[in-house]
Amino acid sequence: MRQLFIEEWIQRNIKTIPDSSTILLRESISSYKANAYRAAIVMAWIAFLNIIKERLIIINSPPEATGLTKENWLGIKKDLENERKWDDTVLNLLLRKNKTPFMISEEDQEMIRYWRDIRNICAHGKRYTIHNFHVEAFWQFLIDFTEHRLKIYGEVESILPDVIEVYKAFGINSPDFKRYLQEVLDRLAPNNIHEFLEKFEMWLSQNVYSEEIAEYRFLEFLATIYDITNNPEFKDHHEVLLKYINENPKITPEMFITYHPQSFEEIVSTNQEGIIPKIINKLKENRIGEKEFSVFLYLLKYPCLDETTKERLSKEFSRRVSDNILSVLDQIISDDHSIEYKLLIRYRFLEHLKDTVLSAVLDYPTDFWYANNRSELSVWIIKVFGLEQDFVKKIVELFSKDNYPYEVARALKKYFATNLDDWKKFKEIAIKNLGYTEKDLKNLKINPKYSKSNLE
Questions:
Q1: Could you read off the pLDDT of 367-381 as tens digits, one per residue?
Q2: What H or E segment, with its residue span, contains residue 102?
Q3: pTM score, two decimals?
């Protein structure tokens, strides 16, 4: 039998809803299924007020901008803890026009009055007939109001100081902090996520020396919350987070994707503002590391990107790859059945990479800084493609000169020193195919036996 929507909501928010409210809502559901609709609304009404009470009771100080003094707040909290007064106290605060901790519209106050009257009819009236649709309508109001429209001054402020202290003590990557943050999200209503993130970002910007570092730390924080909420238990929190990322003017969707590539498909699917060109432009701003390369692979997978653009990207990105992603490439080419490997082959990325080494690393004159940042890439290309004649020719021409990229020479010399069969093959190609002599190769800077240079 299909679950009622209220049952699905309880299951999805089981960690957020107070245990006492969960019990009351399940009694409401049992009454509904037994056609006892009056009892169903009475139980759900108590659960509704109790959810709000539990969110209020954790606030220690009178919220700012409410007109409530410390004495007022202590009195309210005392009444909230009184079994005979708590429900009237919550209702009174909800319906007040001032000196209330709630940010609430007149329309919502009218709806609360309406459902209070229905609850009173259910408890005391006899003439008015209560139907199943009344119960379902109140359940829907309870969900919409507590999840999306109920805002409490000071609720985020009461949580944030502890979050900051734990963050400072353990750091974002600590399992202890991640567990603690999950507990915080268990208690934090979805409609408070936006304010919570804004205030944490503000704290970082005011307490971290560099704006760039503060931005990076906030991306870490967002990514951690993204991973925690990316499951059915936190579905509503996750939707609010996605909205925040898509609408944030500072931490843009393309910036978040570049930092957290696993979010690519979801962020792109929820963003209608031509995000793909923005992602491509963002990648062009950064050096290509492991995360950027992951985003590049997602772009090659993306079905709505045309083939010509993918071909162009493959060629462009091959020129921006350096030694720091070789471990990623090794992992990809180790499995020639993987989607990633097939994409690199389809869009000729490895061929483009070889051309980059030939034309920009080993060609003379070359940008030595650019070449030295790709010293291991030159060795990697030999391992993947073998010793081809044009490759040997470029190496001999470059490393016969007095000026050359030292790191590239060092990497190649080390490789040939430990792979003498390849050095023998290199010499054979150079002498037999290209017309060089033993004497020419003896003074080659990548010769394993060459020692008259700073390479030693």
A1: 899 999 999 999 999
A2: strand 102-103
A3: 0.77
